[in-house]
Structure formats: C-alpha cells, structure tokens
Amino acid sequence: MSMLLHLTDSAAGELSLTGGKGANLSRLAAMDGVHVPGGFVVTTEAFRALCAGVVASRSEALRATSIPVGLARAGDEIRQAIRDIPIPEEFLRELKAALASYPPDILFAVRSSATAEDLPDASFAGQQDSYLNVRAADVPRAGMDCFASLYNDRAVAYRVKNGYRHEDVAIAVVVQEMVHAQVSGVLFTADPMTSDRLTCVIEAVEGLGEELVSGRKTPFTWRLRGENIKTDSKAAPPLTDSRLRELAAIGKRIEAAFGAPQDIEWCWVDGRFSIVQSRAITTLYPLPESHDGLKRVFVSAGHMQMMTDVMLPLGMSFMKLIALLRMEEVGGRLYIDVTHDTKSAYGKKMIRTKLSATDPLTNQAIEEVLARKDYIRGIPKGPGSFSSFGGWLPILREGIRLYRHNDPADIDCYIERMRDLVARLEERLEPLSGMAAIEAILEDQKQLSQIIYDASGFGMVLATQFIIQKIDDMGKALTGEEHISNRLSKSVEHNPTSEMGLALSEVADLARTYPAVVGYLEAAGEVFRMEDLRQVEGGGAVADAFEKFLRQYGMRATGEIDISKTRFRENPAELVATVLTNIRTLPKGHGKSSFEQGRREMEALIEELSALAQQKLGARKAKKLRRYISFFRNYVGTREYPKYFWICRYDIYKKALMREAKRLTEQGVLREPGDIFYLYLEELREAVRTGRVDYATIDRRKKDYAHFATLTPPRVIFSDGEVPEMTYQKDIPTGALPGLGVSSGVVEGRARVVGSIEDAVMEKGDILVTSFTDPSWTPVFVSIAGLVTEVGGMMTHGAVITREYGLPAVVGVVGATRRIRDGDRIRINGDEGYVEIL
C-alpha cells in the first residue's frame, strides 16, 4: 500500500491508516457543502516502515516504568532515535511528487494524527506536535518530528493515565495547505460546560486559530439556541449573526454525519467557512433514557443529597433498594424522573418542598420547567416519583406530638431505640458468611427505609422545618432580617455531626500535649497506623482516644451514601490532616470554648428578640416566639440523626461485604477485594453462590466509571439532551461569583481548594473551597474561617454546620473549584451570597 493517501481517497477514512485527525478530515472532505483545505496523509504504514525497528528496540524501557522521570527519559531516547532515521529516497520522491501538485509558494500545516486521537471516548487532543507555515522543502523533516512526538512527555503520560498500551498506538501525519484566515475559531455543537445538546457555542478570534488555542488572544464567544444568539462581549463582533447561523448549520450537518456532538475547528477565508478539524466532544454528560419516546425531565439526586461524585454499581444497588423515589442510573450518578410529578398539584408541591431547601439552582431550573405550559400539557398521566411515598401521615402526627411535648427526653428515647437496632443488626450479621450473609443484608434492606423514615426521627425534621418558617416570618417582622433562624442555629445540642467535630478536636487537644505524637503525625501522613502511634511517647493514650472516636464516628466517609466509599475506621489517616490543623492553628480547648461562647450569644439573642416581640407584637405573640425558638433550639440538630443511623447500618453491611470480598479473593474468584464494588448486588449474590465473576464486565466498568468521574453532572437534564439555563438573579460586584448565602458574615482569607478531607491541611484564617461537604467534613469546620461549595442549599450539611459554628458560608457557586485557584485571596459574603477573588 502507498505510504501517502489524499484526503479524498476512500481509504483515508480508515482510522488505522490515517489516525483520528486524518480519518475525520477524510470524512469531512467527502461531505457535500463542507469545505476542507486540500491535503494528503503520510500513513501509519509509513510510520511503521520507517520507525518500527528503533521503536521496538527501545520500547522495553517504556513498558518497564510508570514513573514520570523514567517515562520521560525512555520517550526522549525514542524521539531522538526517530529524528536520526535517514529518510529513504523512494519515500522522499513520493512525498515530493505529492507536494509538487501545489503552487510553489504554498505553505503547509503538518499535523500529527495518532490512532488514539480524536476518538469518541478520548480526544488525546494536543498530545502530539503540529507545525504551521512549513515550506514544501521542510515538510519531510516536520513529518519525522511529528512521528517522534508520539513519544513526547505529554503523549506518553496521557496513554499511561488512560490505559492505552504504547505498542498499540501508531501515528500518521496530515499535510494540508495553509489557509490564511480572516477569522478562526472553534464550534461546539453542544455546550461542553453544561452538556446542553440544544445550545451551540462558537469562539472566534481574528487571524489564525493558533492565537485562540495558545491563549494569546481572548476569544469572542456566542451561545446559539434556536434563533436566539447570546454574547457577553461588548466589542465589535468578527462575525455577523447570519454567518454564525450558517456556521452552526454546518456544524449540525457534521454532527449528524458523525453521529455525535462535535468540537469543530474552522476558518473564515475569502467569503466561506473552511473546516480544518472535527472530533467528538468527550466531556458531555450521558443522556438519560426515555423508554416511551416522551421528552422526560430528570433531577440529579446527587445535588439533593450533597454527593455529586460517581457512585459505583454496588453503591447504586443499595441506594435503589432504600430509595423512596424511582431513580435511574445516568453517568454513574442517580437521577429522579420527575416528568409525571410536573403534571400533578401534589407532585409539584413535593418537588418544590424538597428542592427549595437543598439546591437553589436545581429549584430554579425546575421552576422554569414548570412554567412551560405547552410541555406539561403534552405529558400523559402517569405515576410520579415524588408522589410515590405515602408514609407522611404518621410522620406528620408524630411531628405535631413532638412539638406539643417539646421534651428533649423524646430525642434520647429515639437515639436509644436506634442504637439498639444497630447493635442487634451487628450481632445478627457478625457470625454469618457466604449466601447467609448476603441474604441477611437483603432482608435487612427491606426494613432500612422504615428505619430511615422512622416517624419520630423524621417527625423531628418535619416539625423543625415548619417552625423555621414561623421564626423567620416573625424575625423579619421584628428586625427586617431574612432567615433569622440561621443565627439561632449556633451551638445547639443533639447534633451528631457537629458533636463529631468537637470530639475530634478533643483528640487533637490530647495529642498536642505529647511532642513525640505530633512529630509522628507530621511524618506519617498517608501511612499513619494506630499500632505505630502506640510506639511513641504518649501515643498509647492518644491512640485510645482516637479509637474511642472511631467507635462512635468511624462509619462516616466522604460521599458516605455510597457504600463503596472508604470509612474513617478503614483509613484513619484521612483524619490526620484535620488533627494537625487543630493543633497548629487553634488553642487548646477551642472546640468547647467556642461552643459555650456560641450558647451565651444565643441566650442574649433570644432575650433581645423576646423583648422586641413583647414591645412590638404583644405578650401573647412574644410567648409564642419563645416557644418556637425553644423547640427549634432543642430539635434543629436532630435533622442529622436519620442519616447518622442510616450510615451506621451501612457500615455493618460493609464489614460483612468486605469479609465476603476477602474470602472470594483468597479463593481466586476476585483479583482484589475492591472489585466487588463494580458488581451490582444481585451480581455479587451470584458470585458468592457460583464462585464466578465476569471480569470483562468489571474491567469495562472500571474504564467507564473512571470516565464518568471526569464529567460534571447537570442538575436537571431532559432525555433529548436539553439542560435548562440556571443563573442567580442578583446585583453583586463586577467579577464576583454568585451563590447562595447560607450563613451570615463577611470574611477574607486564603482559599484552600480541596478535593477530599485527607488533603484538607488548613491554617488559621483559611477558607475551604470544595465541591460539596457532607458530615465527614465536619471536623475540618472547627478550624476554618469560612466555606464555599459548588453544591448546596439552606438546609444542607455545610449550611447547617457553618451556622452552628458561626462561620460565613456561600454554597451553590457554579464552578467554584475551577474558577478559584488554591492560594487565591478571596472574600466571601454570606449575607448577600457571593464570592470575590481579590
């Protein structure tokens, strides 16, 4: 076969011959109404013929290491060897003949096109080298440099990260005539940031597209949806609206031909658009299915639960077993189909009740959907998700009884009853193994929903939410302050989550008295082990305190509603950074003294509000306000208990499951215990019963879920790919990031952008910036100055705990972990709900 193929040759569309870029360009060149600059491809056959020998002789060094330094050194050797290869005369003649068909003054773009590039599931964009404005005489050398770039640091590291074997990847070289563009840019036929398939995004700069890619010029950006065109730029646009629509139409034709949304590079040259590259957008979130062809609307359960991480299959199984709402798995997360809920008055009420307290942007998106009368009229009658739970009446009755009684002894009775149920479950599961253990877990799962939604536990939550509204209404009438209940949340009793933070601060207070213990903690980091701690002076006492903490709170974990997540008891090293932060930044006894200080402040605030109520509203309403506040202060912390006891039971399940995983690994059924997390519960049951697993499925899921973990789940998404627009409507300083203020106050400090609690090494005055927080993060709150999260609402974990600790907080800040850099100095305004990067 020839070492060269023209883009118009039918064989040039084969990925194995021309690489991802070359194959895509060949398909584009064959389309009617799409102009592609003329050119040809130096095929992978040429690469193999010229370079196979030197690559094979030096590839063992690449396979033998995954260490960056070793990879770079091995790659350097191969690159240099390829550059030193003499180009055969026969190949030079063929190449020169192809170049001779162009005018002598033409310059060329010489671009790498690897077989693992511009793929539907991995773009590998920018990993190999390309060269612009190359003279015909220099094309052979530029082509060899492109071949060599298959082994540059970026490409080698990227293949290792994404699981591609070096020997399975080849490279071609695309040679095209340079176009001297008046305007260049990219067209995304779907919005890569929101995953909205109904919106096109176009970026453009004057001149060559390299100016955009390199970042030397700020692009002009438009968003097109139907006939609507939006832009934030005030400068004169380089393209008219009619040309934008023409370009978007070309993009949609290419999308249809390729069968997926596309990232397209284009140029405007001499009155027409030229397409110079097209690849699949690999960052779009997968679409939920509609089994009946109806345009269905789905809400992210993760945003409601404050856990937007990927959930592995075993975790999915457990969540679906206990969920009161019907949930679908989409992109490794759970989504709730609320299509039929939007049709009924009860369904609408339940949606609004749940979403208004959890995530304001999700709530805003659903309100926009509910306003679409034509869409809702077209929805046939059907079972709703939110309206499927019929157990509210006993919860409501118990909530009324608790309010009337207002006796913290009722809380103690509930706690004692729940702890007894947990102890009985552990006693029942401990001696079981094999099918008996799995069956016992499945049997207990049938009761778990009843325990989570226990009338007393949820009655406390329901009654407190009702009282919050009463307090806020009266507080606004008295002081003009919105959500005065936020301030009244500080230093309350009966909150297992905030108590966990105080308990860990006591471990830190004990540890700080032993210099040898502090030294060990600083040196240990991720390899912390309790038995090693016991070997240093004072370590025995600290280890005892640590283990006491883990007995009470060791079941907690970041993203703990996924049973596959590592619990504190499984990896206590996750807490070392928090203990050290307490020791370094806070005085001894800070936790208790802060709690007492907060309690005294609340007593003063209550007296102030009571006096105002007596003065403005009269004795009867003043008495009613005091009763509301009394109940609120007694019960607001208990909203954490249903989840606490849920996670306690999960932890017992997990101990039994890991015993089975270890047994299956010892029998050779599993490669490693953690592989059970890639099995659904019924699949695990079969593995235990038969002693066999399908590792092709496990390996595929590992790859899929690694990809899902890189994606941002939309809050609301339709089955046709539409994602409703969501923006905060508020006046804030120019450049500030809008969010929801959930805990009052203004604070400035250093941003610590943190992905997991084990990386949360904070210093005094630091502001925690993260995707979301759940109860596992609470120990960190003792030492921070404020909180910013991407997800959250008024009654979610971060909001409740920051109010209790008296810390300013802004949640629901879209893209906070990308837009705020670690170390930035920021100001957060918890009163108005925004973040400024100073």
UniProtKB/TrEMBL annotation:
Name the record gives this protein: Phosphoenolpyruvate synthase
Domain PEP-utilising enzyme mobile positions: 763-833
One Pfam family matching this protein: PEP-utilizers
InterPro entries: ATP_grasp_subdomain_1, PEP-util_enz_mobile_dom, PEP_Utilizing_Enz, Phosphohistidine_dom_sf, PPDK_AMP/ATP-bd
Keywords: ATP-binding, Nucleotide-binding, Pyruvate
Residue ranges occupied by any Pyruvate phosphate dikinase AMP/ATP-binding domain in the UniProt entry: 17-223, 227-284
GO molecular function terms noted in the UniProt entry: ATP binding; kinase activity
Organism (species): Desulforamulus aeronauticus DSM 10349
